[in-house]
Amino acid sequence: MATTVKPYPNSIGKKEQVAEMFDKIAPKYDFLNQLLSLGIHKRWRRKSVQLLIPSNPKIILDVATGTGDFAIEANRILCPTKIIGVDISEGMLAIGREKIKKTGLDQIIELKTGDSENLSFVDNTFDAITVGFGVRNFETLEKGMAGMFRVLKPGGTLVVLEFSHPKKFPIKQFYNFYFKNITPAIGRIFSKDSRAYSYLPESVMAFPDGERFVEILKKTGFSQTSWQPLSFGIASIYTGKKQELQSQ
What pLDDT shows up at residue 218? Predict the structure, then answer.
């Protein structure tokens, strides 16, 4: 059982705290993402989306969409007919909507306020589901994964990009130092929330990465699961399929 890590030391639920935190840091989120990752996150995101090319999905759900970067990349590479992004932070969505409007994609990409653990869509709606750096923020991880399985069409594919825990020297030692010291310090300078970028490494350390997350995917219904470490294990891509219905 993973330890529950919350952004703030109060009695409010994790979900509400995560929404509050992202509302606060939304104006600087994209800038800090680029600065703290040195741009590597763009390559990770591109590689994640490219895994969906063989299945050619036309209707895509982007869970924990934030400011919409994953949805925009999915549109660029996959050219679907519709992408719906959901997120609990209205502050992040507001910035995402402006970004999408400026790029002329607002007829294809729609961003909605929504709870990733209580998706409002009917069963078997989407050809593919993407999640970029969002699942570790779920209050109840298995509930969130089961909900995504429910709204995915039979034969559809889930792709999850998430931070993980490097195991090898010296990457592990550098990663831990950077995440626990440099990331919070830079975050405090540029964001309005001193806790947000301390919560980041804490949430990564608490997340059941690797084979443990693959087991959660299997437990919640996904088959043909896979796990691919990126950049010496700093992040990982996870995939799973919803089995097609057997003809009678």
Answer: 98
